[in-house]
């Protein structure tokens, strides 16, 4: 089965590191482990029934500023004083 980390922390289990929001597949023997059951019962990891394709993350560049050539010249001349 495939499980997803729903916490804000890294979960390390059965030799696998699960970052927040990351998914991993665990064998049946691992799923029978009491510690694994504890994580499931608390909702820290949840079974993913269907892997949906996630769209690529879009970068928001609206808050970024781009220095124009004129601004770069001004900054350079100010630092040379």
Question: How would the blueprint of this fold be written?
Answer:
Elements: E1 2-5, E2 11-13, E3 16-18, E4 23-25, H1 28-31, H2 34-41, E5 45-47, H3 69-79
What report would you give on this structure?
With 81 residues, this protein is α+β, with helices and mostly antiparallel strands. It has helices at residues 28-31, 34-41, 69-79; strands spanning 2-5, 11-13, 16-18, 23-25, 45-47. The strands form two sheets. It has a three-stranded antiparallel β-sheet.
The rounded distance between the terminal residues' Cα atoms is 65 Å
Q: What characteristic shape results from the CA principal axes?
A: elongated
User: Based on the structure, what is the oligomeric state of the protein chains?
Assistant: single chain
Strand content: 15-25%
Radius of gyration: 23 Å
Structural class assignment: alpha+beta
Low-confidence runs (pLDDT<50, min 5 residues)?
Answer: none
Order of helices and strands: EEEEHHEH
The percentage helix is 25-40%
What's the β-strand tally? 5
Number of helices: 3
Specify the biggest β-sheet: 3 strands, antiparallel
Strand order of the largest sheet: 4-1-5
Roughly what is the average pLDDT, rounded to an integer?
A: 78
């Amino acid at each position: 089965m495939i499980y997803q980390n729903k916490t804000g922390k890294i979960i390390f289990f059965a030799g696998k590191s699960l970052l927040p929001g990351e998914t991993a597949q665990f064998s049946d023997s691992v799923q029978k482990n009491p510690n694994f059951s504890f994580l499931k019962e608390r909702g820290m990891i949840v079974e993913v029934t269907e892997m949906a394709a996630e769209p690529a993350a879009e970068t928001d560049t609206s808050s970024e500023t781009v220095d124009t050539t004129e601004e770069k010249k001004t900054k350079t001349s100010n630092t040379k004083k």
